[in-house]
Amino acid sequence: MPVRTQAELKAQIKEGVFDRFYLIFGEDQYYKQYFVRKILSAAVQTLPEMNISKYDGQTTDMQTIADDVLQTPVMSEYRCVLLTDFDANQKSENDLKDLKQILSDLPESTVLLFYCDTVELNPKKPGKWKSIITAAEKQGAVVDCAYKTVSELTKILCALATRRKSALSAANAKYLIELCGRDYQVLQMEVEKLSAYKAGQEIQKEDIEKLSVKVVDANQYALPKALFALQTGKAVELIGELFNARVEPVVILSVLIDAFVDAYRAKAAVSAGVQPAAAAGLFGYAKNRAFVLENAAVTAKKTPVFVLRDCLELLAQADKTLKTTASDPRFLLEKTAIQLIEKLRRQNG
Asked: Are residue 236 and residue 304 in the same domain, yes or no?
């Protein structure tokens, strides 16, 4: 029976018995990353450097994957092969045929994971994903990491506040979700911030109103993601939603600048042989925000430093224009978003 729910996958990981193939996708970035990490660490507890292979799904050819999945684990029950951001809708029929052949003959000692990070997969409109989803259901598991329900999140946030030595009532947890949306990574940061602010006391509604990032701001942080994913239509749509919500243009642009600065710093750190988590301290990031550079390193993995530098120069010019001229701010931001995507697209030749 294919694993379909997050609860079932958690139970399977706890038992230490794994399917041959996992297709992990969905809205909730935190839980997608969480399950990929958990599967890798639970399946391979010995010599991970030899028993875990990681590939870029957009550039790796099928023959490389076909060869790797057949390798025998070294002093381990399982070998894991992780393919990030394979996009079936962008692949040729030959690639999909080769992939189906790979999935039909996976060794029992191999765990193949397809992780949709920036690639979006809509199971209701699967397109070319349909045959892969069918194969996944036969050979392994399709795991949709959709946002949790308000009820589920309420329990999780109350428990998180308790672990952080504060208290959060169910009513205030629901209010926090109402303001900030259902993205767990955002909510986790908000509870940790509020718990630190209250220093062991109960978090009140006025604390949430005073300190928490409102849901409209979540759209701001979705905008850089759309740019790096080369989703022009999505980026323009988000800009429109932010303007309709009366978010100041200078605030929208500052979020873009911050995202590209993070990406540039992460790329520079990796190029210098420094892990992003270690570099975060050097750049003055708080300890509990080291993940910002770690995520930026993944986002900018395929982007050359010179492209990020060009993007920052473009953003600097947009910032100057926005603050010193009477140009239409919405048009300026839409134009800048399109220009950024064109610069990022050139990284792929």
From this structure: yes
